């Protein structure tokens, strides 16, 4: 019976190429920067319209300061559900679409967010629409459309974690790799703001009376960068610095923004302790350093995706393409579900590349087969044991 359902869903999707491209064009032609609530909500309006026209239940969680959260349901609301994930926000500033909207050249679609990840949003919509055409959806399915992943999901994280409770699996439609692979492992990462208070003094007349916040920051940056361990996959990077009031004044303040990346949650804990110890060191007498965490993503460890990936490979082969798993240093919302012990697979969207640039593109002929494979994976989850992932 399950094979019949898979065939029915894949057959309907086979005829949806142009409809999917039309939906992609519509989404790309809406500015939806993470801080543009009106834009991300406009994307939500379209998604809601597409789903509700097929009788799919959509719950809209109104958010006062960020894009609303959409939650779509099929097959009931019980536990043991499958969670589909995608974010509506892009990195591109409002106004980008006016000068550089959706365009298409042969098999390639261009435009802001075309790969990351509006093509993935289209995929999730069409998976839900395909499943809604079955006499009965064989398992509960929940699709979550958030609006702030590009800035670390400060609002969306709580909704992701709530939606993941009791889930059998989480499938995240970040863009497929340019190699054609899906993502079976991702680094976690965090951002920090470091601030140093010092004491001002005239650098010629009374240099010894001052305490340089810039010197303290410089000493700490060297120690922080020394925590990088390429072999272990740990990196630390101070990407911006600021401070001081003039060339001839001992700097009374300084600040920096630190980015960290790690492969496992154990590394995360060790790294955070090392950073805290460095910030606490006195360095220059008369200065005081503080640190504040500004963002965070948990890692997607390979063990959390292995069983799901094996199933996805089988379904992809049946659809007609070969695929491997790939590790990436980029972060995503997949880390939140994986950290909860939910088997998670990422990078399931259509193949794309050059994300976050003016040259971002999506391979349009991967829309249908990747959507078919995602739907088939979902429908055949009963064949997989996740004991090793929990």
Mean pLDDT: 95
Uncertain segments are none
End-to-end CA span:
29 Å
Spatial strand order of the main sheet: 1-2-6-3-7-16
Portion in beta strands? 15-25%
Notes on the protein architecture:
35% of the residues lie in helices and 24% in strands. The chain is an alpha+beta fold and 390 residues long. α1 (2-14) crosses α5. The longest helix is centred in the N-terminal third of the chain and has 19 residues, at 114-132.
Looking at this protein, list some descriptive labels:
4-stranded antiparallel sheet, alpha+beta, 390 residues, single chain, 6-stranded mixed sheet
Brief overview:
35% of the residues lie in helices and 24% in strands. The chain has 390 residues and is an alpha+beta fold.
Question: Helices, strands, pairings?
Answer:
Layout: H1 2-14, H2 17-28, H3 37-52, E1 57-61, E2 69-74, E3 82-87, H4 96-99, E4 103-105, E5 108-110, H5 114-132, E6 141-146, H6 156-164, E7 169-172, E8 182-186, E9 188-197, E10 201-202, H7 213-225, E11 235-243, E12 249-250, E13 253-262, H8 265-280, E14 288-297, H9 306-319, E15 325-328, H10 334-339, E16 344-345, E17 352-353, E18 361-363, H11 367-379
Parallel strand pairs: 3-6, 3-7, 7-16, 8-15
Antiparallel strand pairs: 1-2, 2-6, 4-5, 5-18, 9-13, 9-14, 10-12, 11-13, 17-18
Helix pairs in contact: 1-5, 1-11, 2-5, 5-11, 9-11
